[in-house]
Design brief:
284 residues, alpha/beta, six-stranded mixed β-sheet, five-stranded mixed β-sheet, 14 strands
């Protein structure tokens, strides 16, 4: 009988201990489920930099030999996104549709050798980071040595480009463009095809950005030559009006990249394509 009482007493003590432990831990099934749900809850959404670009705009953005997007501006965007902890999405777009895509939210920035002069009221810009010019490129053996020699010549440029804006601007080079064959420049979807037409003799000249001209002349130094500039300007990253926070972060990160030598490294990487640190203007 004494042995049985001892066993009963021990069992009761164990049961009481279990209840006390459960009470101290606050461990109900509902509480456990809440804890599990909290652990499984997703972190706050990471911002995504959705870059709209022209994939036929070397050396800033183009399709590389491996079939992937590459270019100087793509390298910049990749580094900026990484340093800010952003996701990065690169979207090749129809350049004519860039404004609609930006306003619809399909992209949230335009980063592809994008001229800011004359567009300040349409976009929220980062600080300008690269010096640029609009120039005319001709064949070396064409006998065209100055802008005045373009009278009666077929001149082509990219649709909706900065070069086209300069040639259509009354305060720019419209008077010059009026002397071209057909009274103005022709337009084409991309510069690669424009230079193919120039080399084959279909057109006499291409109006384009300095960087595009340098790229094409570096690839074929015995074929092309550029004339004096039509205008001078600078590149910046364009965001939707009001998106000041992301524009400012891009500016600050590019400044940081210049200070730590990353920009110099990227300029050297793309040097054979006409990119030079001498044209970098965003320092601090």
């Amino acid at each position: 009988m004494k042995k049985m009482k001892a066993l009963i007493t021990a069992a009761a003590a164990l049961s009481l201990s279990a209840l006390l432990l459960a009470g101290c831990s606050g461990g109900t099934a509902a509480d456990d489920k809440k804890a599990d749900d909290k652990a499984a809850a997703p972190a706050e959404d990471t911002p995504t930099l959705i870059v709209g670009l022209d994939n036929a705009y070397p050396p800033y953005g183009f399709i590389g030999d491996d079939g992937n997007l590459t270019g100087f501006d793509i390298d910049l965007a990749t580094e900026v996104a990484e340093r800010n902890g952003w996701n990065l999405e690169l979207k090749a777009i129809n350049w004519d549709a860039k404004d609609a895509l930006l306003n619809q939210g399909d992209i949230n920035c335009i980063w592809n050798g994008f001229t800011m002069e004359g567009r300040e009221g349409k976009y929220e810009f980062s600080d300008p980071y690269m010096y640029n010019e609009q120039v005319i490129v001709v064949k070396k053996d064409a006998g065209i040595n100055s802008l005045e020699d373009l009278a009666g010549k077929n001149v082509i440029t990219q649709a909706d480009s900065a070069a086209l804006e300069v040639l259509e601007d009354e305060e720019g080079q419209k008077a010059l463009a009026d002397t071209f064959a057909n009274g103005g420049p022709q337009t084409i979807a991309d510069y690669n095809n424009a230079f193919m037409q120039l080399e084959s003799g279909i057109v006499d000249a291409v109006a384009c950005d300095l960087s595009i001209a340098d790229y094409q002349m570096a690839a074929k130094p015995d074929v092309f030559v550029k004339l004096e500039p039509l205008s001078t300007e600078s590149y910046a990253v364009g965001f939707k009006l009001g998106d000041t926070e992301m524009a400012q972060k891009v500016t600050a990160t590019l400044e940081e990249m210049y200070e730590d030598g990353t920009i110099a490294e990227l300029c050297e990487k793309w040097g054979e394509y006409g990119i030079t640190i001498d044209n970098w203007i965003l320092t601090d």
